[in-house]
Amino acid sequence: PCLGHLSVPATYICTHRWHSITLCMWQVCRTSMLGSVLKMLAANVHSVLPIKLFEVGNIVLLDPSRPLGARYEWRLVAVYCDSASGMNAIQALLDRVMGSLVWLRGGRGR
Question: What is the domain range of residue 79?
Answer without folding.
Answer: 11-83
